[in-house]
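COMPLEX REQUEST
Ligand: zinc ion
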Amino acid sequence: MDLTVLGCAGSFGAPGGGACSGYLLQSGDTSIWVDCGNGTFGHLQQHLAMEQLTAVILTHGHPDHCVDIYGLHVLLRYGLEIEGLPVFAPEGLEGYLLTLVSDFGDTFQWNAVGDGDTATVGDIALRFSRTDHPPPTYAVEARADGRRMIYTADTGPEWTVGAFDPGADLVLSEATYLHDHRPAPIHLSAKEAGEAAREANAQRLILTHLWPLNDPEVAAHEGAEAFGGQITLATPGLVVAV
Ligand SMILES: [Zn+2]
Ligand SMILES: [Zn+2]
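STATUS: Structure written out below.
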């Protein structure tokens, strides 16, 4: 199973074209676009023909995780004339997104996600867990080829990756803040991300969703110290074998 980072800027686009949250998860012929943050659709098309896209996951309705689904809708409906692409999203998000378009036609087949729900998309088995974030938000566990990764989506410290089984091969954790500056309790600091991943016995940790105003090197140091080992900072275009 391969993870490609399409964008990783926390909450707003970073200078120099830094897109917000978006990831491509692939195993065999299965390709899932996880979060459609602003700026990620262009990057997605550099890695995949849209005829090959198997499904979409939207972890929540904040714009930095979902607005590029409008671009996908236009391409599928009016360009490629593809219908019925599965989308996994919190209940009600389809209606919320419809406030900006008259309708999605039959482009997507919407699947409402709830806490503890599971789904199988091609070669990839999914499990969802409700995080500590104001709109309904779901972390994603993905298994394929005997490997397992967890993506935290956005979360405050009242939820941790410990909601899933320990020992994941990879944890992709939000790490919006530095620990001495946490303006709102709806995100993690790099320290909190590192601690939670260590407690969950994660084999590898990638920090993402960093606040663009902060120094990424400071976040990397803080996260690595808390994790007790090497970590990786997400960067656009990073490809990792889980
Ligand atoms: Zn976000
Ligand atoms: Zn959010």
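REMARKS: The first helix runs from residue 40 to 47. Residues 60, 62, 133, 154 surround zinc ion (ligand 2) (CB under 6 Å).
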